[in-house]
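Hi V.,

You were right to ask for the full record rather than a summary. Here it is.
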Amino acid sequence: MPAASTDAGMEFFEARIRPLLVKNCYECHSGQAKKIEGKLRLDSRDALRQGGESGPAIVPGDPQGSLLVRALRYEDHEMPPKGKLPSSAIADVEHWVKLGAPDPRDRADSDSAASPSAKKRTIDFAAARKHWAYQPVRNPAVPAVQHAAWTNNEIDRFVLARLESRGLTPAPAADRRTLLRRVSLDLIGLPPTYSEVEAFVNDDSPRAYEKVVDRLLASPHYGERWGRHWLDVARYADTKDLVLVFGDDAIRPYAYTYRDYVTKALNADVPYDRFITDQLAADQTARKDESWRLAAMGFLTLGRLFDYNLNDEYDDRIDTVSRGLLGLTVACARCHDHKYDAISQADYYGLYGVFASSEEPAELPLMGQTAATPAVAEFREKFAAKEREFQEHVDTQFHEQTEEARRQVGDYLLTVATTRPDPNEDAVFFMSLSPHQLRPQIVGRWRRYVARRSSAGDPVFGAWGDFMRPADADFESSAPAVAKHWLGLSRGTAPGQLNPLIADELARTELHSKADVARIYSDAFRKAYAEAKQEAKEPPAAKIGSQVASDNPARQQLLDILAGSEGPAWFPRSNAYLYMSRVERDRYHRLQLELDLVAVKSRVTPPRAMVVNDAASLCNPRIFVRGNASQPGEPVPRQFLRVLAGDRQRPFAHGSGRLDLARAIASRENPLTARVFVNRVWMNHFGDPLVQSPSDFGVRATPPTNPELLDHLASTFMADNWSIKNLHRRIVLSATYQQSSADRPDCRRIDPENRLVWRFNRQRLDMEAMRDSMLAVSGRLDPTLFGRAIDIVGDPQCGRRTIYGLVDRQHLPGFHRAFDFANPDQSAERRPLTTVPQQALFAMNSPFMLEQARSLANRRQVAGRLSPTDRVESLYQLVLARRPDETETELALHFVDAVQADSTRDDANKQAHDATARLDAWAQYAQVLLASNEFMYVD
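Predicted structure:
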């Protein structure tokens, strides 16, 4: 497996597989298990491959032959026995096995994971900052070169210095036609017309090329082209991923507003630091007259839903922000300190707290005003009715579930007192609960809350801790002494005392088991709650608790626990759906779907921004031991990564911390942000980056091939006020960019991969540029900007640019897969580059290709020419922006004559023809040109 693929597989293991194994399997299949079931351990690479009594647990590359996969599917065994994992989790394991089951764990990893008390790796942050990527960005001195006459700007001097140090020379300049086609497809994703080529070739002014570049950067199509590059980083998709919930109606009605924001921002040359801030915190920085900026927050909200597993959603956001903006794999620190980079679990959970303190509002903000037409009024009325029904259901369920959680306090405490922790207490995505069934996540929170407060001095749960400490068999003999001790203390609410209401119940109750202790606490809590409701004349349950003062301090102390926002029974209204019973949750999804469908089906739906806001109750994060949310460890503040913050590391001061995070990332003192971005831009211009792992600048990354050039680009980028267009301009005006792509064996022997850029890399058109170019030359391109996603695959007549095509992450079309479209499930480092038969079959048989060929042949410039020779010349001018030579004209005429001769044969022979028989001779020849390498590749 190539190194890049291996690294990606390791990242996938750390982000998806290790947390799954720790959470669902380690209790019975690791060194921490009291008894290792089936003699199978899953906590190390070797143990996983060796397997247990039934044989090896996995067969790398073969999911069907892997016992682990079959067990998770409930085929041979049923693992985990307490409930089948969601289909998305099983799919992750299958994908991991297909990758060859990359696994960085060894025995030392296993032992450390199994034992929370095992010695942790100590991170030397001072030493870590010596890594090249963490060094401050400085604009290095421009090197002296021998052939300075070749250079156009500083970029060329940095490139030429490296070439000369290896005895290499740059390639000659590309001819003007080649250069114009290259820069046009590069900057706007569309080929130049024949007239544009001729004008450029015949322009003798010294600024001829510079004027072309300025024209292209000013084109509205520039934002469409480079916006698509950014959408790969942002893992953009138009749909949700919950197939079982939403089926084929999973379209996010407002996802397109993020895509349109990116296009608009790039066209307006929004400075990159502001571009970052918009995407993380536009709700806190956009002015009232800049509502379009709010849509930028789709960067956070357009990821997968992970079957409503919030911890995985936060992890996805951490991964997208850290890899996309910083080039760091922070998500690898979810279960343990990063194995290679100076990123600790404290760093991970500091960012976790930022995103756990942010939530999507029930009503997304409108972006501007809409016209007051009858159709708009009708839509508003229909939408408002559905929205009202949806919100009423949420309000009702929030009230009922919070009230039920408080009413059942005794059952929750009894469960905590008499049962062992259940890993499912952190799982909310598979629940099928009845209305009065205990909610596992509330059980887990009560268990953790009680454990945290069971210290000797706590006035409420200090006694609980002493009662629970002995074994069950010793309880009845030890309980009287514990009761006597606590009843002998002062009755009060201060540390070292015993809450009087707890003391009263303890004094009148005989204790025979730990269940009796739970009953004492249950009675005290319920009485305090009932009395508070009576005092307040029974207000809504949501207002009972810490929000209502009580004349009785002892009662208030219990109310703060039972009904306060820091108590284990509380949850925000926005999370009410996680606590609903099966029937009510199904209704919630149905109403949500109906609301979305009203917006999707109406042509006058006003755009809304998919924002997040700071939650009413901010998350004060704790490190999850081994990544397991049911085992919270040490508290950590919401703060930036220590390796980057240095001695100035301070907790974020503004709400959730998203604005602080955006400012830390977009700071000129941050050594990563500018480097990561200019490296991505260089990659998309040249087809190869300076740092080979664009989303990972950590210690395992290959150092940049030209570190001085990287820092020059980064420093001048920031000095130019983070102007992305100025960065493009500087690159494409360089002599380096304008080189020919012709191969030279002498240079290839020294630098076979062209890492030193001794020529321009020949590149195949990506999916978007290929389809858009075909539309352009066939005369069918619709230049309309912005708007909702449309079907570009099922409708061969569609002339909109490919960026506006529907991206369905659950059912990615074969067209996208065949032409290496980025996986929208996660932030894409770079697109794969494959050559497969499906690509040729598309060019030969696809309805889209045939439609463009027919339209091209029917264009007035072709069909209106009487002479066959003139028709050939027109086709060449339209498709390849040049005239054919004599040999090409002769071959074209021979091809057309042969096809026309075939058309006179009998019908039986016609029926044996392939799909191209539906095209006349000239359309078939147009198809040949559209499928040619000269059209499909950029020199």
